[in-house]
Amino acid sequence: MTQRGSQRARRPRRTEGSPARRAEGAPARRPQLARRVAAGKPGLRRNPGKPGAGAARVLGMSTTRRAAVLAIVVCALAFTVAVPLRTYLSQRAEVAEQEQRQAQLQHDVALLEQRKAAVSDPAQVEAEARRRLRYVMPGETPYIVQLPEDAPQPQQPAQPDPVRSGESAWYQQLWSTVGG
């Protein structure tokens, strides 16, 4: 075999394939060499048919692997953002609730201040005492006018006391059932 390779004659180099000739637009005999020269860098090859295919070859990853890496990066970013986002939304809801509670308390404070102002007036205090507590000033004669629609409800008769009506107490009844 070694003799066979030595017997093969080398072809003489033609001037058609010279770099000067290739620059003029003539086709090269060896396509790999033509790609290297056209790219301007001897180590990189270009495939004009697929954009981005050169980057995949340089990185040494297929399209599927790049998609998987992209999916992992997106998931990592989503998990990184999810916890602070959840905390932010819960705090925002809590702040809204507290603001609503604060508004309600401010309304209650305003009502109580109005009530305090009303109670600080001596005439108002006297009127409240007469109406609610039915107080009268010394020397006045109190009276109550009762209208027909304000008739008092009949009181229910009181339950008779079992001890007074002749029955025995519960503990006596219990003792009599146990003792026989």
Automatic annotation (TrEMBL):
Residues 14-24 have a biased composition (Basic and acidic residues). GO terms for biological process: cell division. The keyword Membrane applies. Residues 1-56, 146-167 are annotated as: Disordered. InterPro entries: FtsL/DivIC. Keywords: Cell cycle, Cell division, Membrane, Transmembrane, Transmembrane helix. It comes from the Bacteria. The keyword Transmembrane applies. The chain crosses the membrane at residues 67-85. This is Cell division protein FtsB. The lineage of its organism: Bacteria, Bacillati, Actinomycetota, Actinomycetes, Pseudonocardiales.
